[in-house]
Amino acid sequence: MTSPQQFLLPDVGEGLTEAEILAWSVRPGDTVEVNQIIVEVETAKAAVELPSPYAGVVSALHAEVGESLAVGKPLITIDTGPPGEPADGPSDGRTTRQPEPEQAALLVGYGPQGAGAGRRRRRSVAPRHTTSPPEERTEDRAEAGRPDHVVARPAAKPPVRKLAKDLGVDLTTVIPTGPGGTITREDVREAVARTTPETVSVPAPDAARPAETRIPIRGVRKHTAAAMVASAFTAPHVTEFITVDVTATMRLRELIAGRREFRDLRVTPLLFFARALVIALAKTPEANSSWDEATQEIVLKRYVNLGVAAATDRGLVVPNIKGADRMSLRELAQALADLTATARAGRTSPQDMTAGTVTLTNVGVFGVDTGTPILNPGEAAILAVGAVRRMPWVVRDDNGDERIEPCWVTQLALSFDHRLMDGRQGSELLAGIAEILHEPGLALL
Amino acid sequence: MAPTEPAPPETPPSDAPIQLLDPTGNLSTDDRLPLDLATVDLAALHRDMTLTRRLDTEAIALQRQGELGLWPSLRGQEAAQVGAAHALRHQDMVFPTYREHGVAWCRGLDPVALLGLFRGTTLGGWDPYAHHFNLYTLVIGAQTLHAVGYAMGLHRDDSTGSGDPDRDTAVLAFLGDGALSEGETNEAFIWAAAQNLPVVFFCQNNQWAISAPYSVQSRIPAAQRAAGYGFPGIRVDGNDVLACLAATRQALHQARSGGGPTLIEAVTYRVNAHTTADDATRYRPAAETEDWAARDPLERLEAHLRSTGAVTEDHFTDLEQRERDLAEQLRAGCRELAEPDPASPFEHTYAQMPADLRQQLRAHLEFVSSGSQDGERQ
Amino acid sequence: MVKALNDGLRQALTDDPRVLLMGEDIGRLGGVFRVTDGLRKEFGDLRVVDTPLGEAGIVGAAIGLAMRGYRPVCELQFDGFVYPAANQIITQLAKLRHRSAGRISLPVVIRIPYGGGIGSIEHHSESPETYFAHTAGLKVVSCSTPHDAFHMIQEAVADDDPVVFLEPKRHYWTKGEIDPASPQSLAQAVIRREGTDVTLIAYGPTVPVALEAAEAAAEEGRSVAVVDLRSLSPWDITTVRESVHRTGRAVVVHEAAFSHGFGAEVAARLQDEEFHFLEAPVVRVTGYDTPYPPSRLESDWLPGVDRILNAIDRSLSY
At how many degrees (to 10) do helices A329-344 and A269-281 cross? Predict the structure, then answer.
């Protein structure tokens, strides 16, 4: 009974991948003992004699003198005789499994690994849930005994956060649908779609930055542009201007700001402009109407939904305060504050922006004096209020003497739809607003 | 207990190493190295040297058969190692380099334990405290400082100079000729001298530090360097097991009794290459090796044993059987050395595994257990 | 802080007769910073050892002493002189437990005065902590207050692993209360100051600077948290995450050079584990990628309050 054992060419530690057979010391049929030298091979640098790992009879030599043999290939087969004899069985496969401890000088180690090192089966990588707050990893903190605070914050990766910021979306209002409770891009866009008529589709960010930048026309900008075009080229616009001394209003403002019921509200000049407009509007109902081209009717409205133009990160939005004519000054102040906050947070709803009847636009906040505002489509008039400045003004005293004094002065500009109003109504309205701002007591009338 | 004043330095030793047993096996005496033969077990010395050589030979074969990645052979240095080792008391602590397989053998280590480091199954392989034999240190010279520190400890726990042979302890630090040039080795000499520490530095000057002959390291014999630091140096024939034994006994006694350090230079020869990966034919002439072959440490002892009738023929035949047994033990033991557990590096980096490392271990084990795509390799 | 260390060492020497101190000038002189002042007199020259001048020797001998059962506390006199000991620290001290499969335990402490800001000459203002934090088998810690100095040195001595103990030398003379109780473990970070806008992460000498910056930021209406890491290896990411999870913004402050410094480790881990909660990139305020400059330049080179405030601004600008 034979028990053939193969001795595979080992890597003798010089980074061998192969060796050349120089001389055999044995022939098939020879009896060999353990450690008897059986062959001399040429390595990269020197000749090395290899001792037999087996005792037995040589069955076959697997390479000829002068032949190059690769490491790991059979070198010699030795029949170790019937089973029961000590079978020295080196599994030479182990030689190339050890990692090489040192690089460079091939003085140590098993040398570079032969080909055929097994690859591991790749399993699909289950992502670690990095959204779990640190409190969940408590193994070694148990002994610390510190309280665990769980602060609920929206989870969104940096590009999504940027998108939200660009679109003016508050992440705390977004419903997350991503893995591990994270907010995705789609979630952010969905939140935007809930607040604007258009669905905003954001293109992939531009990587290149050439001399020109191309921004796709979409969303708020598109809507605003369409509205402007519709308005400007449908309604014949006329704009009238007036410069008014509003010192009395500014004094009144201080007085009112100090009152208890206005303590937690911002009392701005804009509040008084809005109030004056609403009051004066009562005398010029044409300014609170709309031209219905389809039915060929002019629609006079007995309610005032006062639109206030607001500049936000997303662009121009014009939400309106429903029933502004029925509000007290304080109610109006609150409504203005709410409107502003909502607009800034990007949460102005479509409902907020429809059914307006007249609009107020504050160019003064930018330090600008006046302008020629474009009507909000469907409306008859729009009032632009400018910066309130200290200006030299002619003041007449009781004796009839005139002198120049610094006063609070502002410019008002009223654009109106000449289909609905003539110059007379427009002028009366504008003068009426100015009169109230100049002499607020007249509002008592 | 306060250390005694160091013995005055020897008059500088002549270049000739002290020799008791010449290459033909003739024994003589030397006043510098008194040796009471009644206290010497020649048969045991011969047995240990022979088995050490066999251990070394088998390990080389195992490397050539792909069972070990590397083996640093001690062939030719058996007398130095076995002679020195026989001078040790049980409680003495040894700090070897990486070639002291003969000392390990004499200390009672399982010789298979020496193989793991070179097979890649471990970075150590034995408990240093079990046989008072430290792990091998591969960074040249680093162990000399560890030996010095250990000796400082002996000094502090009153383990020297008491006169009690079971209590008095010394440290035996091995180093090669190359290590003499390392800064840390020289720092060790400084500390040992300044503090009069119970440490013996045993330098096997085997003439070669890989391919650098001794002349690259020093202009003077190694033993003479000790005087520069202020402690005795003695130069012996490193192929003469009796001279090595006598010198080490003397030095260890000196150390144990509070007499401070000694540097022993055992002049010997590294018959084989630096390791199995080295090719010595590139830098030294064959004639030199042949020359040293005539001074073989085993041959002279065998000649002495036979000529004096100190042993019977049985000694030799028994020894041959023991050699065969040892060879078989090594071959079988080598192949049975346990593969290291993938978790073991993680478990022994710190006394207690930090949380982050535990996470890494988990991920690593998961990866390892995901199995091989190709199945078992050929 | 010097007195706190001195008291802590005294306590350690008293509690365990196997503890000993070794280093250059630590005995007769009491240490160039007087950290070991009076200890030689009290405990004798066998336990407070004036060693020969050689850092490799100090650490190598400490290893041998530890193998004999002692608990050596080495002092390496200045950060810039740790390098001769690097071989023993990295190839031996860090690895012997691993090499011996747990049979060899080396409870060695290596104390190093480190860091800049004291107007010193070359090699006396280094921050070599990352070389050691990156070496598996070592623990690396740094105290920032006298209280921590007192407790942490004793904990380091009692630890069975080798500990590199970094003492911020610019705060050696800082005064502070020492509470007898110290609930944290050696490896735990501490939130020194709560905040909601941004988290500063610091250790050793940059902790007081970070606290100063947080105060200044508060005057500008910002709420800034400060975390003192205390331990670099291992490091307590759990505590750091507790704060960063809340603020979403992290700024790391260290004196060591910018590239490949500890801040890089913190930033990498935070972006991995707090990815969905970061409002801004992790910002690092550090030394520059140059050797430490002449002392006349150091105040601008080191991370100071202004540079930290700039970093906070940058973080909040996202």
Answer: 120
